[in-house]
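QA checklist item 7 of 12: single-chain prediction sanity check.
[x] sequence parsed
[x] length recorded as 299
[x] structure emitted
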Amino acid sequence: MDTLVILSPLVLGYLIKLSHLPSLRLIDRALTALVYLILGLMGMGLGGLDNLAGEIGEIARLTGTLIGLTLVANLALLPLVDRRWPLSLGQEQGRVRTLAMVMESLQLAGVVLAGFMLGMLMPLPGHLIESWANAILMLLLLLIGIQLRASNMSLRQILLNPRGLAIAALVLGTSLLAGAATALLWQMPVHHGLALAAGTGWYSLSGALVSAKLGPALGSVAFLADLCRELIAIVLIPILMRRTPASAIGYGGATAMDFTLPVIQKSGGPQTVPIAIVSGFVLTLAGPILIPFFLSLGG
């Protein structure tokens, strides 16, 4: 899928102005169901692979390298934002339910595992799984576009928050460097490594797009790397917030505007929320543009 095909449902959804709260809650539940479906299909595709043992070894090597390099690269440069724009934090807003949030994230890995086992027991043709996954992805992006419009995030609000923009730029730049380094270390095309890293935490999008173009093995690498970013962020945010708020906000990547936002708010206070939303919003928009772009390079 090229960039235009990916952006079309996202833009269409953004043009739909919806403020009816029950409808927005219904969309939120539908998104959860669609994410589960698309991850289950990715697991089924992985379970139907030939030479599965060799693929699992490659998945583990690539995922571990990408996670480690991304963590080091992100946390090395994000403190520069704190030096340029120091942030005075309020008191901790409440207790962070870290274990509960980690378990919620691990449920997603469980869905992939269930799909993997089903794919081994009842393998389906790869083209059929790909077609289903693409259709679900288009609907997913349409609903995400509606959600983004409902968030009322204006261009003015984004441009007037230099901390959020700087955090997003550093997270994206250092993540892409980590992706390129991973590719070079394991003798992959560099643009494949860039595609693996461009999701910055948006695991349902990155896993589906990379699977469609490069196969379920590399799609699993993208998914696992982004899911682990979320899990690690949940643990690190309360630890990093007092020393380097930019690192606490930034490492979660695209999830800073949704899943990890409650942890950021409880750890750093309400003044961190606009920064996190702007950073997460920019990275969320970057994913569906950059991933297909990198995947289109090299034929």
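[x] summary fact logged: Residues 21-47 form the longest helix (27 residues).
[ ] second reviewer sign-off
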